[in-house]
């Protein structure tokens, strides 16, 4: 079955280990790289995708997962990013239920196990990609490149660019996608195991491969690309098609076209199955997701908003070169590459054009060798390497639709497979030419060791937001989001003075950064610097008129400045843009209380408690206001209602105790309240 030409292992000066031991070594080393991330916190996007995602909670029906995006928003919503990954969210939900809450250890452990499993599977995948597909007489698949596949799997297992996927819990989408991606490929390979009836391929396993590809896509969008890669593998490895020869025959309408391999061994039939399966999967997803484009802003992906086609094209290609550089030299890693981290190239005089030229010089050279080399073994390896490098990256390339990032390390988890193939093949060529092969092997061992240390260092940075955000300051000093996140982390820890410095820098780098303005305005409000706070918040709502949080904070500042009518208008504007906004109703109630509009205040606080039953401050203010206005019976009823919902809130107990005391109910209810307080 599909005999391979020369054996790559003949030229590779590397260690030989039996398959079982090779997999054990790969599993152990991949575990060591990321083991120190097991007790990390929820960081960065984990908050939105996990902690604030209602789809993880038991009260949310399981069926809702199929109609919500990755972040828990309805796919039909204008604010949805259209990232449809229900199976990934389902694993988060299982993690949450088994742990009994938001405890990050279980989430991290699953990610590490997934990466180790994927790395072990890579031994089998690389043995097929580098050594070919062949079965013994007993039907067992043979590993024709044990040394090469071990080296490539180790390169994959220890690549530092994978840290975001493994140490960042949200990266599970990429890990699950990669797992089913590889299982789909291995399932497709299993289709060519000759059965007892003498059939050369199994339709069942081809269909299984399609189903696994669909599952991969339900974990992350890139998963669908495995169907295209299976077709490429079929053509090159199973049917041994020479692409250049095939193109020539198509151009000249050669009557011997059927001899080129298109009609042999059921290739057209299998490709038809793959195409129909892929089209069906995409159609179902389109029906669920709808036709509306994702809602991204210019700061997420500035090149995609450029008016000039030239500027868009040249910057997209520069982004590709940066992704390639991260694979070659994964030293400068950052959790976010948006918001000015990579300034736009606007003219050909920009020196960064050199990176584009270098990228395309290498790609064109590799493509020419993959198409034109007389060595069929070389053609196959290079084409498969380029295929696995480029095809999984296409959904993130901006070619088919706008994506919500500039560069994202997580999206090159799958393309790194192609990089490992090309690296291993390049190493085999050097080994073939080198006189001192041991020195070359030691050099590669050194690269692996450096990558292991880099993985350990980088995964430790992902353990907490403070370390993660600060690590980005030296990599992307022009990124306003980096400064914003450092400032937010400092503010959460109570270090307002330092937070102000980073918020100001974020606003300086991006004068339209409304979230930085809002947070800076909040801190200035708390420090009683009301004039500047009002200026910042007014500018924020001017830039983004539907920014509900900024409208509410502007109302609080205006209330403090005793401009009550303006404050009331700001609060109602916030509520108009965010219907379910309990905190805004609470602040509106405080405004009405200051104006002695008691009925309006009570109604506002009641709205806050309806939207958020555990809103202790709103309940407490209602009790106190009713107490102060002499409505003791109503105050007692509200207090008892609040304590049923929040039974251990001491401030509510104290307010209710005051009401009971004034009502001369010293025994029974009052004694129970006092005993709880003590």
UniProtKB/TrEMBL annotation:
Pfam families (alphabetical): TMTC_DUF1736, TPR_16, TPR_19
Protein topology in the membrane: Multi-pass membrane protein
Pathway(s) it belongs to: Protein modification; protein glycosylation
Domain DUF1736: start-end pairs: 292-364
Gene3D superfamilies on file: Tetratricopeptide repeat domain
GO cellular component, one term: endoplasmic reticulum
EC number per UniProt: 2.4.1.109
Top-rank EC class of the record's enzyme: transferase
Gene Ontology molecular function: dolichyl-phosphate-mannose-protein mannosyltransferase activity
Protein's GO biological process: endoplasmic reticulum unfolded protein response
Principal cellular location given in the protein's record: endoplasmic reticulum
PROSITE patterns: TPR, TPR_REGION
Location(s), subcellular: Endoplasmic reticulum; Membrane
UniProt keywords, alphabetically: Endoplasmic reticulum, Membrane, Repeat, TPR repeat, Transferase, Transmembrane, Transmembrane helix
Residues annotated as transmembrane: 20-38, 112-132, 144-163, 169-189, 201-218, 224-247, 267-286, 353-372, 384-405, 411-430, 439-457
TPR repeats: 480-513, 514-547, 582-615
Family of this protein: Belongs to the TMTC family.
Protein name, entry field: dolichyl-phosphate-mannose--protein mannosyltransferase
Organism: Serinus canaria
């Amino acid at each position: 079955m599909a005999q391979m030409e020369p054996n790559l292992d003949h030229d590779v000066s590397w260690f030989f280990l039996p398959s079982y031991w090779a997999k054990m070594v790969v599993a152990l080393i991949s575990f060591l790289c990321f083991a120190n991330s097991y007790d990390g916190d929820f960081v960065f996007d984990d908050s939105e995708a996990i902690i604030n995602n209602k789809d993880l909670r038991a009260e949310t029906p399981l069926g809702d997962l199929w109609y919500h995006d990755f972040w828990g928003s309805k796919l039909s919503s204008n604010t949805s990013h259209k990232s449809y990954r229900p199976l990934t969210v389902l694993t988060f939900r299982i993690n949450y239920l088994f742990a009994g809450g938001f405890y990050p250890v279980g989430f991290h452990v699953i990610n590490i196990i997934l990466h180790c499993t994927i790395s072990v599977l890579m031994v089998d995948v690389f043995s097929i990609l580098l050594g070919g597909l062949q079965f013994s007489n007993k039907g067992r698949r043979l590993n024709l490149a044990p040394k090469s596949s071990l080296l490539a799997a180790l390169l994959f297992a220890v690549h530092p660019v994978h840290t975001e996927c493994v140490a960042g819990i949200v990266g599970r989408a990429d890990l699950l996608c990669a797992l089913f991606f590889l299982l789909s490929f291995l399932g497709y390979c299993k289709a060519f195991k000759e059965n007892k009836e003498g059939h050369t391929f199994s339709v069942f396993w081809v269909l299984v491969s399609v189903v696994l590809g669909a599952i991969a896509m339900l974990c992350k969008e890139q998963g669908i690309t495995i169907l295209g890669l299976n077709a490429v593998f079929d053509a090159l490895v199973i049917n041994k098609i020479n692409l250049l020869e095939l193109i020539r025959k198509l151009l000249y309408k050669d009557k011997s076209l059927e001899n080129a391999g298109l009609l042999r061994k059921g290739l057209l039939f299998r490709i038809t199955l793959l195409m129909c399966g892929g089209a069906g999967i995409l159609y179902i997803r389109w029906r669920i997701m709808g036709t509306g484009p994702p809602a991204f802003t210019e700061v997420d992906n500035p090149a995609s908003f450029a008016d000039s086609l030239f500027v868009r094209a040249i910057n997209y290609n520069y982004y590709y070169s940066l992704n390639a550089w991260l694979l070659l030299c994964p030293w400068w890693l950052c959790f976010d590459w948006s918001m000015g981290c990579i300034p736009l190239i606007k003219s050909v005089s920009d020196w960064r054009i050199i990176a584009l030229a270098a990228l395309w010089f290498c790609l064109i050279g590799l493509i020419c060798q993959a198409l034109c080399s007389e060595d069929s073994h070389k053609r196959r390896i290079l084409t498969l390497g380029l295929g696995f490098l480029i095809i999984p990256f296409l959904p993130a390339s901006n070619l088919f639709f706008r994506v919500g990032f500039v560069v994202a390390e997580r999206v090159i988890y799958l393309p790194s497979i192609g990089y490992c193939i090309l690296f291993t093949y390049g190493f085999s060529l050097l080994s073939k030419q080198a006189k001192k092969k041991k020195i070359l092997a030691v050099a590669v061992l050194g690269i692996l060791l450096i990558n292991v240390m880099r993985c350990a260092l980088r995964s430790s940075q992902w353990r907490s937001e403070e370390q993660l955000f600060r690590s980005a300051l030296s990599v992307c000093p022009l990124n306003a989001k980096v400064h914003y996140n450092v400032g937010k982390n400092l503010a959460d820890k109570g270090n307002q003075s330092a937070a102000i410095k980073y918020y100001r820098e974020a606003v300086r780098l991006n004068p339209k950064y409304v979230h930085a303005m809002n947070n800076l305005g909040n801190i200035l409000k708390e420090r009683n610097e009301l004039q500047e706070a009002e200026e910042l918040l007014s500018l924020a709502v001017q830039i983004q008129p539907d920014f509900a949080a900024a409208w509410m904070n502007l109302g609080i500042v205006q209330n403090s400045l005793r401009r009550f009518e303006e404050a009331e208008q700001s609060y109602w504007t916030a509520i108009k843009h965010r219907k379910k906004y309990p905190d805004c109703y609470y602040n509106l109630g405080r405004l009405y209380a200051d104006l002695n509009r008691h009925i309006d205040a009570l109604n506002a606080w009641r709205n806050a408690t309806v939207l958020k039953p555990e809103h202790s401050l709103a309940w407490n203010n209602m009790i106190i206001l009713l107490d102060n206005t002499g409505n003791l019976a109503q105050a007692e009823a509200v207090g008892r209602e609040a304590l049923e919902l929040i039974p251990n809130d001491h401030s509510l107990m104290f307010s209710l105790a005051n009401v009971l005391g004034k009502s001369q109910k010293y025994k029974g209810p009052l004694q129970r309240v006092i005993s709880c307080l003590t």
